[in-house]
TrEMBL record, chain A:
Residues 54-75, 105-118 have a biased composition (Basic and acidic residues). InterPro entries: SDHF4 (IPR012875). Belongs to the SDHAF4 family. Signal peptide: none annotated. Pfam families: DUF1674 (PF07896). It comes from the Eukaryota. This is Succinate dehydrogenase assembly factor 4, mitochondrial. Residues 50-118 are annotated as: Disordered.
Automatic annotation (TrEMBL), chain B:
GO terms for biological process: 'de novo' NAD+ biosynthetic process from L-aspartate. Its main location: plastid. Coiled coil: none annotated. This is L-aspartate oxidase. Keywords: FAD, Flavoprotein, Oxidoreductase, Pyridine nucleotide biosynthesis. GO terms for cellular component: chloroplast. Pathway: Cofactor biosynthesis; NAD(+) biosynthesis; iminoaspartate from L-aspartate (oxidase route): step 1/1. Its cofactor is FAD. It is an enzyme of class 1 (oxidoreductase). Residues 530-618 form the Fumarate reductase/succinate dehydrogenase flavoprotein-like C-terminal domain. The keyword tRNA processing does not apply. Residues 90-474 form the FAD-dependent oxidoreductase 2 FAD-binding domain. It comes from Theobroma cacao. One of its GO terms (molecular function) is L-aspartate oxidase activity.
């Protein structure tokens, strides 16, 4: 009884007042997904998805030739560095930004596990 | 508590009479206001507030003024006069975060500016805002979309006009920052790299690696330091605003401050004052805010008769690292909380109470993947029911390598304190993060006190409503700091400074006469009282609230405050004495009381404010909570300006 009541109470508030896209009828993609699919999903939606240029393609081929850990999307990739030292994040297309997966992939802003904004 | 609290909606009529002192429990209908239970669009808070707070040209001819005195239009390096411990400026800015600095840079083109900051200039909540700032900067995005996201996040309590203004003007404010030298991340295509944070339906978060706040602060501070018209007074703690009554109007003439390095009082007399003093996280024991965030601005404004709004909406993060649960406790108390990311739950982390019971399924079908606010409430509920200090977030069932590669920061921090997160659960507790409420502001950042403007976290502009959307706080600060500029300049030009005005208010004094032994006792007691207040706030005014608990809080806080003040005055403390710890304590008491009053007044649950006895949204209550100034009868030391004598 208590379980159902509490569940209803908290859920009813959350549906009305919490801005999670997963609760909105407009959204087709819940924000709070887990597993390795989430990062690539966000990249597909990004309006900022950069086009791969020749140099990038060459780098990518080079990387594919190297044996990589299957968890690559969650690891830093040093071959991304340009000559001038500006790091380009392969997953997000960002120049000089945080390495690794998109800090906002779970909704909050996180770096290496620490949350800075939400 | 003498403050009267009311729901206010519709048009506020200028010059209307308020009901006073009827007690915080009653929701008072202010005369002249029509409440028609209508939709958000009709509740023109900002329009009403703007009309009410209309800046009319202050005619100071009835007020002591030296007719031959010119206002400070000419700007030179020695433009400010010094008369003993009084300094005269055209503009006084309290706070050196993004709002204060942004404003200072603009108004400095028109007059002299003092930036008064209580620690080092970079010590502000801005500096810790590491995420980003939201703005519509992508062609496929729209102001309407940003507005919608903001209003939904705010549980429909936002003021629509404010939201429109902020979302519309945001992009220009970002562009200006870039022009000022702030460096934001780009994509390979050369465009700004925009991230998408929870609650946003488009990518619109501009950021600088993972230190956006710091980067903005750096760029602004550099410009401020290089501006010859701006003088930064660091380690100057603002004590009370200098105000006078002109009929029914309150006018602000500057601020008293304590130089905490030299222990000297400095009086700043200014034509215009901007309050940009940030948040009040330290009314709670666990907070992400740096130590400077003790609600100084909200308290000073309340004491200066400014209207305060929506203080019940305190944003907590559900899972901050709980030092109490670490095998090796940090040597000194952590200054600001280490938040454990949602990603841990997203990756399969499970929440347990200290009896190792998984509790989330009892609260929500989505268990650990429920929305953050639901998780926060659930954790709070568990802690209060079980009278425990933290819960456990366990990711140890996942592969060790994955844990270490995804969360190296958490792993390292915990390991430093004797905890291996690949083997043991992480102790976590909610932490206070952001105050959605504050000093009520109109669309130009104006308040009901003439010459007093507000911007940033200290303000309640109507943008956040009942809950802040991620990355909207830096945006709000930028927009309102900018909007307050022209009205400030206009006000400044119509004002004259009276050099003898400085003598109108009693000078604060440092408690040298008490001697070091007594001061030591007072400081020690004050530290204990602060901990006690924080404990009461967390226990009784946390995330899940009830009328009973809030009433208990009110009583306990009242008793604690009385006990503390009695202690002070019994040891020779005088009404006008000032010391950093004591002044911060009185501000914390003031803010705590404002939060409790506001929480008691809202008989519904909305956004961040959840009440067990009013668990649902009530359409008729979709109105801001407003606290009007209290009368000075029988008021405490924390409730009145230092130079105001109690009336008994």
């Amino acid at each position: 009884m208590v379980r159902a009541t509490l569940s209803r109470l908290f859920s009813s508030i959350s549906e009305l007042s919490i801005p999670k896209p997963s609760l909105s009828s407009v959204r087709s993609e819940p924000m709070t997904r887990f597993g390795s699919n989430s990062a690539s999903r966000f990249l597909c939606c990004s309006a900022q998805q950069p086009q791969l240029n020749h140099q990038e393609k060459a780098n990518e081929e080079k990387r594919e030739a190297v044996k990589e850990d299957p968890e690559i999307e969650n690891k830093e990739n040093e071959e991304d560095d340009f000559e001038d030292g500006d790091h380009v994040n392969k997953q997000t297309g960002e120049v000089g930004g945080p390495r690794g997966p998109e800090p906002t992939r779970y909704g909050d802003w996180e770096r290496n596990g620490r949350c800075y904004d939400f | 508590m003498a403050a009267s609290v009311a729901y206010v909606g519709g048009q506020l009529q200028y010059g209307m009479n308020f009901y006073w002192g009827q007690g915080y429990r009653q929701a008072l209908w202010v005369p002249g206001v029509t409440i028609n239970g209508c939709l958000q669009r009709e509740l023109s808070w900002s329009r009403g507030v703007s009309k009410f707070l209309q800046i009319h040209r202050c005619n100071f001819s009835h007020y002591p003024v030296r007719e031959n005195w010119k206002s400070f239009r000419t700007v030179t390096t020695s433009a400010y006069l010094k008369d003993g411990s009084t300094k005269y400026f055209d503009f006084a800015v309290i706070g050196s975060g993004v709002a204060g600095l942004r404003y200072a840079l603009e108004v400095a083109k028109h007059g002299t500016v003092a930036v008064i900051t209580k620690a080092e200039p970079h010590e502000s909540n801005t500096n810790y805002a590491q995420g980003g700032v939201s703005a519509v900067l992508c062609p496929s995005d729209s102001v309407e979309s940003h507005m919608q996201d903001t209003i939904v996040a705010g549980a429909y309590l936002c003021d629509e006009e404010t939201v429109k203004v902020v979302c519309t003007e945001g992009p220009d404010r970002i562009r200006e920052l870039i022009a000022m030298g702030a460096s934001f991340d780009h994509g390979e295509d050369g465009n700004l790299h925009l991230a998408r944070e929870g609650g946003h339906s488009h990518h619109r978060i501009v950021h600088a690696a993972d230190m956006t706040g710091r980067e903005i602060e750096r760029a602004l501070l550099e410009a401020v330091i290089n501006d010859p018209n701006i003088v930064v007074f660091k380690h100057h703690f603002a004590i009370d605003l200098l105000t006078s009554q002109y009929g029914s109007d309150t006018v602000c003439h500057g601020v008293d401050a304590l130089n905490t390095e030299t222990q000297e009082v400095v009086r700043f007399v200014s034509k215009v004052t901007l309050l940009a003093s940030g948040g009040a996280g330290h009314i709670y024991p666990s907070t992400t805010n740096p130590p400077v965030a003790t609600g100084d601005g909200m308290a000073m404004a309340h004491r200066a008769q400014a209207v305060i709004s929506n203080m019940e909406f305190v944003q907590f993060h559900p899972t901050a690292l709980a030092d109490e649960g670490l095998p090796i406790k940090p040597k000194k108390t952590r200054e600001n909380a280490f938040l454990v990311t949602e990603a841990v739950r997203g990756d399969g982390g499970i929440l347990f109470n200290l009896s190792m019971e998984r509790f989330m399924p009892f609260y929500d079908e989505r268990a650990e993947l429920a929305p953050r606010d639901v998780v926060a409430r659930s954790i709070d509920d568990q802690l209060k029911k079980r009278n425990e200090k933290y819960v456990l977030l366990d990711i140890s069932h996942k592969p060790r390598e994955k844990i270490l590669s995804h969360f190296p920061n958490i792993a390292a921090e915990c390991l430093q304190h004797g905890l291996d997160i690949t083997q043991q659960p992480i102790p976590v507790v909610p932490a206070a993060h952001y105050m959605c409420g504050g000093v009520r502001a109109g669309l130009q950042g104006e308040t009901n006190v003439h010459g007093l403007y507000v911007a940033g976290e200290v303000a309640c502009t109507g943008l956040h409503g009942a809950n802040r959307l991620a990355s909207n706080s830096l945006l709000e600060a930028l927009v309102f700091a900018r909007r307050a500029v022209q009205p400030s300049i206009d006000h400044m030009k119509s004002s004259s400074l009276d050099l003898s005005a400085s003598n109108l208010w009693t000078q604060p004094v440092v408690p040298k006469s008490l001697g070091s032994d007594v001061m030591h006792k007072i400081l020690r007691t004050t530290k204990e009282v602060r901990k006690e207040l924080q404990s009461v706030m967390w226990k009784y005014v946390g995330i899940v609230r009830s009328t009973t608990r809030l009433q208990e809080a009110e009583q306990k806080i009242g008793e604690l405050e009385a006990k503390w003040e009695t202690y002070l005055f019994e040891h020779g403390w005088q009404q006008t004495m000032v010391a950093l710890d004591a002044c911060e304590m009185r501000n914390l008491f003031c803010c705590a009381k404002l939060v409790v009053s506001s929480a008691l007044a809202r008989h519904e649950s909305r956004g961040l404010h959840y009440m067990i006895d009013f668990p649902h949204l009530e359409e008729s209550k979709r109105l801001p909570t407003v606290i009007f100034p209290s009368s000075h009868m029988m008021s405490t030391w924390s409730s009145r300006q230092l130079h105001q004598q109690p009336m008994y």
